[in-house]
Amino acid sequence: GIDGSGKSTQINLLKEMFEKHGWEVLLESEPTNNPVGKMIQEVMTGKITLANESLAALFLANRLEHISNPINGLNQKLKNGYNIISSRYYFSSYAFQSDAVPLKWLEESGELCKSILKADLTFYLNIDPELSYERIIKRGKQVELFENKEKLVKTHNQYLNAFELYGRDENIFIINAEKSIQEIHSEIWSIVESKLGNA
Ligand code: ADP
């Protein structure tokens, strides 16, 4: 979901629930902590300037590294028996970058990521961008460059558009996230149980 939609709140609850059921779970997010990820953070927080199309390429490099690094990449962690909950995966490229680079390029890079590692389930926390913006401001942490109202509206629309265009062979669940934290959690967990089984 867009920022302020409740991702980290829900991810933490989901992790607790998995652990209660005996699953080993790792939380991941993008961009990562590797050198490319650090550079992305510097662009996002305005420390360095980079054209948007170059940022898209950096995101792809970062994601491929994140998936396939032979020591601590996601695929290796899965092989080691962990389950992974990632805040954002390749659909976020369509959402954040489809106004900067050609959709065809995003489609091809999304296919590449998917061919290396496809998510079992994708949840989108659907929330009015106005409400998420209020939360971001209230939260009072550092507001990053992409966290302005106009960008949130655009990103939200582009997520929904990408699910329409490229989500056909994915398990995508668009969750109404304008409910209580517990209600959203229960809804997500019941989908997880029905799709992945109860360990
Ligand atoms: P994200 O990780 O998507 O940026 P957070 O989980 O950090 O979102 O939530 C943003 C803010 O909104 C936090 O202050 C959080 O406590 C609050 N919040 C999250 N989910 C809900 C909800 N369902 N109802 C009300 N407030 C929420």
Structure in a nutshell:
With 199 residues, this protein is mostly helical.
How would you describe this structure in keywords?
mainly alpha, two-stranded parallel sheet, 9 helices, binds adenosine-5'-diphosphate, 199 residues
Written description of the protein model:
There is one protein chain. The chain is mainly alpha-helical. Helix content is about 55%, strand content about 10%. The protein is built from 9 helices and 4 strands, in the order αβαααβααβααβα. The strands form 2 sheets. The protein has a two-stranded parallel ribbon. A two-stranded parallel ribbon has the order 3-4. α5 crosses α8. The longest helix is centred in the last third of the chain and has 18 residues. The radius of gyration is 17 Å and the shape is globular. It starts with 6 loop residues before the first helix and ends with a helix. Bound molecules: adenosine-5'-diphosphate. The site of adenosine-5'-diphosphate has 13 residues, from α1, α7 and α9.
